[in-house]
């Protein structure tokens, strides 16, 4: 995939998954208000700005104030998901000036599904289970709690809603050593877009460096192919980016979440 192809793919990614985005969870509402596309969760899930494109600094400042008013009236904290090519170029500084807190940046990585290894090789002693029943979420949530920390209740609500109301949007995998969950991840599908997203991928520290993550990427790539997706995308941390590059992913953009003032 050359630089021209990446630029074309980035334009499609922006258009399909950001500007023209639909709700990414049951019960959420997506609206386009001027130069902003935002999602408002109805069940305590993810709320935030998905896309924006401003022609001037004044327009950006007015939109920032409008989103603070909107989500404030809803009583919701929210995230402004900024990509490095969003305009104006100093949008991040303007969000900071408005009281937003920047979290750690990640790199959007992409790959063509057909170019990836889709035959996972699992380390000895590990098996993978597909989770389709909300009653079986405990292992997934335990892995995420131990790896990522924080409150996993929003994730539990989101996955419960997807598994019961929108089964075509998620494929959830749990890797176990015997009965011990050691890694959990999901494939988020956006039917009709050509894209599927890799999310989660948390592995317990004592199981890292054994190829679990690599096998789980191949496993999800195979599932994406069966679902008709052409491209995989993932918001990669500094730790996972080198692994993904070795597997054939290319960087598309740097993204930084800005959290609203509370």
How would you briefly describe this protein structure?
Helix content is 34%, strand content 30%. The protein is built from seven helices and twelve strands.
Give me the number of helical elements: 7
Kindly state the mean pLDDT as a whole number?
A: 95
Count of distinct strands: 12
Radius of gyration: 19 Å
CATH architecture term of the largest domain: 3-Layer(aba) Sandwich
> How many distinct domains?
2
Sheet of most strands: 12 strands, mixed
Q: Can you walk me through this structure?
A:
Residues 126-262 form the N-acetyltransferase domain. Keywords: Transferase. Pfam families: Acetyltransf_1. InterPro entries: Acyl_CoA_acyltransferase (IPR016181), GNAT_dom (IPR000182). This is Acetyltransferase (GNAT) domain-containing protein. With 262 residues, this protein is an alpha+beta fold. It has 2 domains: 3-107, no CATH class; 112-253, Gcn5-related N-acetyltransferase (GNAT) (Aminopeptidase, 3-Layer(aba) Sandwich). Helix content is 34%, strand content 30%. It is built from 7 helices and 12 strands. Strands 1, 2, 3, 4, 5, 6, 7, 8, 9, 10, 11 and 12 form a 12-stranded mixed β-sheet that branches. Helix 6 links the parallel strand 10 and strand 11 (231-236). The longest helix is centred in the N-terminal third of the chain and has 18 residues, at 57-74. It is globular and about 60 Å long. The chain starts with a helix and ends with a strand. The model has no long low-confidence stretch (mean pLDDT 95).
Layout: helices, strands, pairs:
Layout lengths: L2 H17 L9 E5 L2 E5 L7 E5 L4 H18 L4 E5 L7 H7 L3 E2 L3 E7 L13 E6 L6 H11 L4 H13 L4 E8 L2 E10 L5 E9 L8 H15 L4 E6 L3 H8 L2 E10 L3
Parallel strand pairs: 3-4, 10-11
Antiparallel strand pairs: 1-2, 2-3, 4-12, 5-12, 6-11, 6-12, 7-8, 8-9, 9-10
Keywords: Transferase
GO molecular function: acyltransferase activity, transferring groups other than amino-acyl groups
Protein name: Acetyltransferase (GNAT) domain-containing protein
